[in-house]
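Continued from yesterday's entry.
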Amino acid sequence: MDHRKHTFRDSGQDREAVSHTPVTPQTQAPSYKLAFADDDFLCREDLRPVRLQLELLKPELLMDEAGIESTIVLFGGARIPEPSKKDTARTKTLADLSKYYEEARRFSELMTRKSLETGGHENVIVTGGGPGVMEAGNRGALDAGGKSIGLNIVLPFEQAPNEYVTPELCFNFHYFAIRKMHFLMRAAAITVFPGGFGTLDETFEALTLIQTGRMARVPFLLFGKDFWEGIINWDALADAGTISADDLELFRFVETAEEAVEALENWEGKGEKRGEIPGR
């Protein structure tokens, strides 16, 4: 049955129809291809604005159709192994960090069970869809019998989404910027586990949006205080005046899944937007 709200011919019908067009010099010319069905045309440099729009729109529409109202963002390192495989870690530190794989899995399971109590449309786990901590997040949601989202990115080396992402909520991106927008557009909370450059990039981008009032304040949890204080001297930033001491209240350190759930439930200032930046 045709559910369209207009009487014009469907674009899919025309795409099918032109596949049966007689072969002539004219019909074989690149100019004759339907614009929306012409991959070479869509990949032209001058079509970048259209590709940006499509990459923003496709996941948005599909998540709307799936009824995803809010998400719990889970950032973290791809190189952190699950505890049973920590002997394969490249360094002793990575092996020791494997405990956070289990915490991520447990946290996702707990949050997904809570989400399912209200229909499974709110606080849906979203990860980058890759291995390591991201895999743990999607795996925990599946353990609870719920859905989870994976926002993958095309990289120069071969990478497939982890096997625990809900297939119909698994997306692939060309543009890092659009992918970041989808991480935060529905975010009801942000959790960050130990990781590398990508995790740091995502962490500081989100903190900057909250700090500057461009995004409402949401619970922002950093798993592993020793790790985070070992790589970033937060107090030095405040002492130098490059951030305000108040900015250190935008996030909180936690160690366990249960501690994180409690912090989310008792977060002060959730939903507020800064009208001014302290220290400016």
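--- second protein ---
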Amino acid sequence: MAGSLRKSSKRRAMSDINVVPYIDVMLVLLVIFMVTAPMVNPGVVNLPTVGGAKVQSLPPVFLTIDANENVIVRKDGDPVQTLNKFELGAFARSQAEKSAEQPVVLAAEKSIKYEVVMEVMSKLKENGVKRVGLAVKSQ
């Protein structure tokens, strides 16, 4: 009996990880994905055409938020007036009274916080402006 104890004490536990089964599983998954990938049909989206779009009867009013968080009103590309946050409500009400369907396009400098843009949009909406859009610069 003493001899059998000595034999078991000389055996050490194997500390290596056998990665062969993991490689086999990975290769099987790779083959499965390579076979099924061409069969997956990405969804095709039918986009609407713009040929039937109505031409806007009223030109939009452009509002630009500058670095000082003032709102500059532009009509036909020329600055008409500069408003602060408190004067914006009265301007929006007057715009809504003239024509509720006239679109207002809002632009802001990159440095302006998103919160300021959302405040201006909500102020326009709550004072009767129905159509508010955002202007972006194409790359």
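The radius of gyration is 33 Å. The chain has a mean pLDDT of 80. Will compare against the first tomorrow.
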